[in-house]
From TrEMBL:
Naturally occurring in which organism (per UniProt): Roseitalea porphyridii
Domain of life (superkingdom): Bacteria
Any GO BP annotation: cobalamin biosynthetic process
UniProt xrefs under PANTHER family: ADENOSYLCOBINAMIDE-GDP RIBAZOLETRANSFERASE
GO MF entry, a single one: cobalamin 5'-phosphate synthase activity
The protein's Enzyme Commission number: 2.7.8.26
Protein name (record): Adenosylcobinamide-GDP ribazoletransferase
Stored Pfam families: CobS (PF02654)
């Protein structure tokens, strides 16, 4: 499940990094089959941003370094998860019924709820990263940034697996459904990343608080999705990544 081929295909699905075509030689293989490798792909996606935090953080204010790091990862993913967050916010905020919410989420236009959601996500992640760098060090911020991306992809797989599809024939439905074994492997990989990249710079107590907040935020959002639209969509899967990432960074910033 953690083979290099699976990680490369996960990167091809989750980012705009150039992945050679030879990794996609199996026609009809759904992205969900590589879900176990998503946390490791998240680590790879976060590495350039972590490098930005280290280099710019040594030369300029933590807030500038944090902003450039977050924007770097957004450029690498093509704002994939931010787009999901915005669509979910518009649908949940503007629809009066599950059918209307799903219709709004499918619309490519962005509304006020979506703009506010993206702005809030950016603000919270940037300010939290800057606070970590200022309270500890740019290295600590870089490590927690990597941990947040790995853990958030694990949370995304959990959300994807635990909820039924809300829109038959939609993007998430076409991508398949991760198996329970793939979900468990993703959670294991996310936990390993968390231990290596969060516990070391933040300490066991702060990391434990962060882990609990991520669990609560992920479970709470899944419950909201079940109530609002009856399950998951591609948009809610992306939104779950944003929520878990922000929750982890916020809690570590408060604990340090």
């Amino acid at each position: 499940m953690f083979a290099p081929d699976a990680v490369m295909r996960a990167l091809g699905f989750l980012s705009r990094l150039p992945v050679p075509a030879r990794f996609f030689n199996e026609p009809g293989k759904p992205p969900a089959d590589d879900a176990a490798a998503y946390p490791l792909a998240g680590v790879v996606i976060a590495l350039p941003g972590a490098l930005v935090l280290l280099t710019i953080g040594a030369l300029a204010a933590p807030l500038l370094a944090a902003a450039l790091a977050v924007l770097t990862t957004i450029a690498l993913t093509g704002a994939l998860h931010e787009d999901g967050l915005a669509d979910a916010a518009d649908g949940f905020g503007g629809g009066a019924s599950p059918e209307r919410r799903l219709a709004i989420m499918k619309d490519s236009a962005i509304g006020a709820y979506g703009v506010i959601a993206i702005a809030g996500s950016l603000l919270l992640r940037i300010v939290s990263l800057a606070a970590i760098a200022q309270a500890a060090s740019p290295l600590a911020a870089a490590l927690t940034f990597i941990a947040a991306h790995g853990v958030a992809r694990a949370a995304m797989v959990w959300h994807w697996t635990r909820l039924a599809g809300a829109r038959p024939g939609g993007t998430a439905d076409a991508a398949g459904q991760p198996t329970p074994d793939a979900m468990n492997a993703a959670l294991l990989a996310g936990g390993a990343v968390f231990l290596l990249a969060a516990v070391l710079p933040a300490g066991l107590g702060a990391a434990a608080v962060a882990g609990l907040l991520v669990l609560a935020a992920t479970a709470g959002f899944a419950r909201l999705c079940r109530r609002m639209i009856g399950g998951h969509t591609g948009d809610t899967i992306g939104a779950s990544e944003q929520i878990a990432e922000a929750a982890m960074l916020i809690s570590l910033a408060m604990a340090l």
